[in-house]
Amino acid sequence: PRVADTKAAQDVAAMAKFQRCLSHNPERAFYGPGHVLAAVEAGAVETLLVLDEVVRPAKAGIAARMRWSRAVSDVEAAGGAALVFSSCHESGKQLAQLSGVAAVLRYPMPELEEEDDPQRLLREYAPELVAS
Q: Which helix (H) or strand (E) holds 9?
């Protein structure tokens, strides 16, 4: 297999695309669990970037793992791509700095972009992730 075909190369390319989008089309680049899950729920995610520690966290409960697994499935069912990044790889470390989850959207979602209370979004779209 060619280097370009490797999982790591795919992750690097996806992270680069997200960062370009964040710089040039920020209305189509979300990060943080609240904003990303709200976009997933709306079917707006073209590419979901999620850190392995978020999907398979050793310390998190089963509810969190199930919520993120559902998000991955929802994105794929809607024709999007869902990439799970290794926390050991450089691109995974970059994603970790963005809360461990990010998304490139198919279309802008100004109503979400303007939401400045990510906890409210979490309570609405993923109450199981909100610490009680």
A: helix 7-24
What is the per-residue pLDDT across 38-96, written as a single tens digit (0 to 9) for each? 999 999 999 999 998 887 766 667 888 888 899 999 999 999 999 999 888 899 999 99
Output the six-digit token pair for 41: 């729920």
Handedness of CA 114, 118, 123, 128 (dihedral sign): positive
The CATH class of the 3-129 domain is alpha beta
Sign, Cα dihedral of 59, 67, 52, 21 = negative
The total of other beta-carbon atoms located within 10 Å of residue 100's CB is 23
CA angle 55–64–114, rounded 5-degree value: 90
Report residue 117 as tokens.
């209370």
* Domain limits, the chain: 3-129
